[in-house]
């Protein structure tokens, strides 16, 4: 099974190759811009460029379905990354770092030529996915490796790139090891996304589902934000610790300077003492008081004689008990005195409880001059006051500390436990003039809060919210996509159903329209439109009653509240109505039969469907039937009455032996019977004319007329003319022949006796029909009889004269109207008559 090609993945592969070639050229041609972008940035190592070359080539091979080369390039990328990771883990040097190139740029590089560990990890991950893709073809594990491993590479490279943008070094460097270069992070962002998109395309193509995409995106973004949060937090902690160390280093310098100034103050006093051994008590006391005023941490300054006893002390008030104090009784003091005397250096005693009832220490300065030892100048210094001089209020506000002297805790300040953790602890040794303190520092909470920024938290929150938002948006997009696909399928099904329904609606001979519960038209089939003369857009959305049902058959207004259709919409009962009118767009009306069926859902009336048919023809046929029944019952009785009367007369003639009258009356009786027979035959022909349809065949109308003329007998001198072009069409030849034969025969009968009798037959082609005319030069017909002559048994002359039943023109009219045409007559008395009828070009089929 072959991979589905991804254009984006191909582009990523090409970009990775171009990046690799550019950096390799940079190393060979010594172009730093290609190697490290900026002089202060980390260079892309030579092996890193080779890795990108392998990854880009592998992506291209997979997209081209060259599985073996893809596996080889994937294996090479994995090997480069994995061997480098082994070097870091086991602290090996496998000799691969500078195998091809001796590196001359080593900015922020732990080992020359060695790629960063996060770089090596990324090559291992992409290499594995390319190798699996080539070896396992399009199996689920290989496809998922593209997405998962490629996605992890995208996460790592995104963090590194953002680290450069945010100047957070811990985001692109692990510990003190080599950092990932800027263009390396961008290269992995491209190569990793190319791997992901290749997997994405094939996953979607094979499994036809992208439901995992929201989880992948949101998880990746959440990982990126968490890693950035961690990296930025570590970065901030390092900055805080560096600031703390700089303040502590400054404090240590301050300690040395402060202590040195105190020592020098005693040295000046000692020098004055040595220059003038007879220095008066008052003068020394004045000198000591001056120093006490200058240094607030001094509690007393005394002179200790060569026997280590206190002989003088300033101030004396409150210190009377110290005069005569024998320091030989205190081991720590005695050791310091002796050592100071031996070394002839100022020394400081360990911290002790001073006679002034507070912790402090003694600063001892030996009086040695002219090879004579004159005792010691001793300053009693308050520990707390001295520390306040060293650790200014700002420092003490921000930091806590504790001081140990020979493993003894001599002072502690601040909150010991809150930030007292290994990361924050830092120690300094303060040593001078025999003083040896180990001081441990840690920051206070408000210093951390003050120097920390909320960027890390904001990053985490932003990342979490963004991952959730992206995941949610993707989920909604995919959900919408699935919904759209489902809607498309439903729409297709609906279109098929609608097409079927429309086909049914359009194939039905009845008009159909739908109404909503307010009586507005919702749909209408074309049959309804044709019958009503409206287009669908004329009626849809408009109250139906006021458009087509606003008048009763007699023309009086039809209130909507009385409308039977309206009642269905209100009551929900089906109504069948057959005695109302619908009104066309042109204002004309026609009788209809309609049924209104309510549309119900859960007992609620939603609307109705009205199915109707034009019953004009039915009404006409009913009228014809009524007329036919009347004529039959009336006109057939006339010959029957004549037969009955003649029968009685003949009976009387027989009784009277009037043979001549009997014979004459029998002839009249036969004539009445003949008339009766002709009338019945005509009625039979008339009744069949509207019911049966003969075979449709090709008719040459002109030839048909000529055949009819040949069959009929015309008097000498009688002329029949066919003028104009006559069509050849497919129609009912028998019925058309009946029409022409009756019209021509009728014209001939009424021209009998005229020497110059003439019949003209013409044809005019119209858009949908032909108009034929049969004209004669007979006596003509009065206008008052134009309609009457087309009625059954209506004749203008008596039977005895013409032997005409009066059914010919009625039969013609019925045939012509049966085929959708019409017939009319025009006549001028004394000049002749013209009968015109229309015949369709396409003969309708009636079952």
Automatic annotation (TrEMBL):
Q: Which reaction does it catalyse?
A: ATP + protein L-histidine = ADP + protein N-phospho-L-histidine
Organism of origin: Candidatus Nitronauta litoralis
- PAS domain location: 497-541
Q: Which SMART domains match?
A: CHASE, HATPase_c, HisKA, PAS
Histidine kinase domain span: 631-843
One biological process term in Gene Ontology: regulation of DNA-templated transcription
* CDD domains with a match to the protein in the record: HATPase (cd00075), HisKA (cd00082), PAS (cd00130)
EC primary class: transferase
Which Enzyme Commission number(s) are on file for it? Answer: 2.7.13.3
Q: Which InterPro entries did the record assign? A: CHASE_dom (IPR006189), HATPase_C_sf (IPR036890), HATPase_dom (IPR003594), His_kinase_dom (IPR005467), HisK_dim/P_dom (IPR003661), HisK_dim/P_sf (IPR036097), PAS (IPR000014), PAS-assoc_C (IPR000700)
Does the record bear Transferase in its keywords?
A: yes
The residue ranges crossing the membrane are 12-29, 49-65, 72-90, 115-136, 143-165, 180-200, 212-231, 455-478
Protein name in UniProt:
histidine kinase
Q: Which residue intervals define the domain CHASE in the entry? A: 305-390
Key words of the record: Kinase, Membrane, Phosphoprotein, Transferase, Transmembrane, Transmembrane helix
Indicate the segments forming the PAC domain, all copies.
570-627
Under Pfam families, the record lists: CHASE, HATPase_c, HisKA, PAS
Q: Which Gene3D superfamilies match?
A: 1.10.287.130, Histidine kinase-like ATPase, C-terminal domain, PAS domain
């Amino acid at each position: 099974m072959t991979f589905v090609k991804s254009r984006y993945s191909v582009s990523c592969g090409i970009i990775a190759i171009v990046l690799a070639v550019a950096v390799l050229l940079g190393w060979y041609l010594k172009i730093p811009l290609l190697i490290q972008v900026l002089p202060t940035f980390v260079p892309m190592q030579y092996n890193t460029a080779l890795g990108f070359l392998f990854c880009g080539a592998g992506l291209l091979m997979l997209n081209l379905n060259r599985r073996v080369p893809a596996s080889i390039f994937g294996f090479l990328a994995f090997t480069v990354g994995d061997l480098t990771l082994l070097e870091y883990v086991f602290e090996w040097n496998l000799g691969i770092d500078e195998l091809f190139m001796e590196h001359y740029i080593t900015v922020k590089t732990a080992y020359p030529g060695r790629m960063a560990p996060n770089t090596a990890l990324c090559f291992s991950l992409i290499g594995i996915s390319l190798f699996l893709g080539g070896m396992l073809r399009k199996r689920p594990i290989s496809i998922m490796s593209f997405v998962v491993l490629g996605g992890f590479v995208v996460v790592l490279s995104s963090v590194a790139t953002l680290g450069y943008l945010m100047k957070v070094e811990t985001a692109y460097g692990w510990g003190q090891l080599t950092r990932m270069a800027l263009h390396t992070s961008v290269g992995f962002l491209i190569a990793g996304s190319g791997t992901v998109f290749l997997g994405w395309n094939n996953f979607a193509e094979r499994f036809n589902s992208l439901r995992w995409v929201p989880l992948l995106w949101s998880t990746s973004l959440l990982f990126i934000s968490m890693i950035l949060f961690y990296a930025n937090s570590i970065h901030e902690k390092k900055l805080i610790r560096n600031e703390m160390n700089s303040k502590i280093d400054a404090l240590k310098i301050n300690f040395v300077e402060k202590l040195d100034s105190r020592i020098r103050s005693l040295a000046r006093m000692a020098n004055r003492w040595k220059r003038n051994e007879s220095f008066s008590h008052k003068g020394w006391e004045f000198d000591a008081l001056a120093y006490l005023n200058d240094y607030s941490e001094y509690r007393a300054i005394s002179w200790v004689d060569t026997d280590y006893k206190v002989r003088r002390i300033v101030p004396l008030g409150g210190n009377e008990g110290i005069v005569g104090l024998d320091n030989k009784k205190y081991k720590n003091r005695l050791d310091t005195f002796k050592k100071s005397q031996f070394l002839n250096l100022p020394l400081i005693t360990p911290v002790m409880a001073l006679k002034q009832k507070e912790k402090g220490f003694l600063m001892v300065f030996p009086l040695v001059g002219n090879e004579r030892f004159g005792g010691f100048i001793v300053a009693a210094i308050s520990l707390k006051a001295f520390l306040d001089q060293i650790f200014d209020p700002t420092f003490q506000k921000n930091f806590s500390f504790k001081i140990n002297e020979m493993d003894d805790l001599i002072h502690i300040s601040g909150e010991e436990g809150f930030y007292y953790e290994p990361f924050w602890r830092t120690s300094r040794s303060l040593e001078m003039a025999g003083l040896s303190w180990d001081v441990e520092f840690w920051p206070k909470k408000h210093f951390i809060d003050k120097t920390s920024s909320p960027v890390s938290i904001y990053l985490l929150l932003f990342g979490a919210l963004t991952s959730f938002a992206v995941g949610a948006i993707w989920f909604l997009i995919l959900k919408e996509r699935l919904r759209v696909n489902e809607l498309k399928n439903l729409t297709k099904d609906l279109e098929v159903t609608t097409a079927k329904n429309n086909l049914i609606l359009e194939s039905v001979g009845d008009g159909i329209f739908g109404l909503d519960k307010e009586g507005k038209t919702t749909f209408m089939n074309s049959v309804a439109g044709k019958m009503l003369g409206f287009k669908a857009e004329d009626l849809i959305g408009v109250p139906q009653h006021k458009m087509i049902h606003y008048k009763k058959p007699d023309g009086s207004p039809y209130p909507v509240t009385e409308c039977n259709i309206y009642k269905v919409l209100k009551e929900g009962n089906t109504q069948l109505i057959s005695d109302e009118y619908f009104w066309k767009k042109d204002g004309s009306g026609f009788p209809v039969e309609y049924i209104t069926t309510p549309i119900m859902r859960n007992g609620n009336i939603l609307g109705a469907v009205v199915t109707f048919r034009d019953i004009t023809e039915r009404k006409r046929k009913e009228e014809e039937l009524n007329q036919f029944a009347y004529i039959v019952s009336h006109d057939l009785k006339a010959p029957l009455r004549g037969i009955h009367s003649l029968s009685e007369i003949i009976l009387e003639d027989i009784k009277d032996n009037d043979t001549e009258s009997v014979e004459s009356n029998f002839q009249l009786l036969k004539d009445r019977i003949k008339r009766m027979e002709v009338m019945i035959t005509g009625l039979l022909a008339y009744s069949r004319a509207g019911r049966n349809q003969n075979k449709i065949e090709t008719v040459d109308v002109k030839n048909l007329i000529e055949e009819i003329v040949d069959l009929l007998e015309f008097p000498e001198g009688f002329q029949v003319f066919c003028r104009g072009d006559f069509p050849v069409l497919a129609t009912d030849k028998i019925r058309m022949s009946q029409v022409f034969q009756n019209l021509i025969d009728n014209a001939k009968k009424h021209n009998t006796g005229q020497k110059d009798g003439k019949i003209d037959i013409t044809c005019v082609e119209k858009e949908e029909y032909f108009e034929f005319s049969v004209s004669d030069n007979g006596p003509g017909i009065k206008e008052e009889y134009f309609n009457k002559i087309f009625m059954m048994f209506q004749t203008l002359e008596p039977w005895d004269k013409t032997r005409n039943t009066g059914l010919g023109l009625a039969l013609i009219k019925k045939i012509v109207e049966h085929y959708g045409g019409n017939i009319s007559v025009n006549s001028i008395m004394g000049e002749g008559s013209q009968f015109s009828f229309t015949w369709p070009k396409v003969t309708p089929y009636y079952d």
